[in-house]
Amino acid sequence: MSHIKQANLIKKLELTKQEKELIYGSLLGDGTCSRSGMEYRLRVEHKNDHRDYVLWKYRLLDRLCLTPPQYIQAHMSCRFGTVGHPEISLIRSRFYMNGRKVIPKDIPVTPLMFAVLLMDDGSKIHSTVNLALHTYDHVDLEYLMGQLKGYNIRSSVHHDGHEDAKRLYIETASYKTFERLVKPYVEQVPCMTYKLVLTP
Predict the structure, then answer these.
(1) Furthest-apart CA pair in the chain: how many Å?
(2) Residue 187 DSSP label
(3) I want to staple 89 with a disulfide (CB 3.0 to 4.6 A). Which of 40, 42, 74, 76 is the partner?
(4) What pairing do the DSSP bridges indicate for beta strands 166-170 and 155-159?
(5) pLDDT tens digits, 98-155
(6) pLDDT tens digits for 38-53?
(7) Domain annotation for the chain: domains and CATH numbers
(8) Contact in structure between 81 and 41 (CB atoms under 8 Å)
(9) How many Å apart are CA 92 and CA 27, to the nearest integer?
(10) How many angstroms separate the CA atoms of 121 and 155, rounded?
(11) Predicted structure pTM score
């Protein structure tokens, strides 16, 4: 079967809950959408040291892809993309308003989405973690903080020297609760467990 026919069949598939959550989580983090014909596709790319992370994302989305991840020598990275899909186009339209990336306020942020955000943009600091969220404004950050609070996780916003360099810190007293939330997913990707403090 030709790639065009395969792509047309994939475009008719209804996204599963897990596929949507992974796409949402990727767009909260490093994922991007690019136009493919009349629709948008998700593109995932990480440095080659994190190839296993790319492969993990691919396994969860392979139903929507035509080709497996490829090594990109110019970037020393690993990358794959889905086909252009009407549901991905709709998701993309909710994440970009007037040319600015936003967090849709009607999408509950699930444990999988927080895990992907941590693996994309998080880092360990002392006895907790933080999430680099430079592109978002304070309304978006307040929404994320509210979502974390729903899991009984307290957080705060810090700036790396200037207003646009924003990080969301998980308060140390809430770290174990956050770890329990995301650890089942992060442990599936051993190359990313360094981002967790991994308390006993």
Answers:
(1) 55
(2) T
(3) 40
(4) antiparallel
(5) 888 999 999 999 999 999 999 999 999 989 999 999 889 999 999 999 999 999 999 9
(6) 999 999 999 999 999 9
(7) 3-98 (3.10.28.10), 111-195 (3.10.28.10)
(8) yes
(9) 8
(10) 16
(11) 0.94
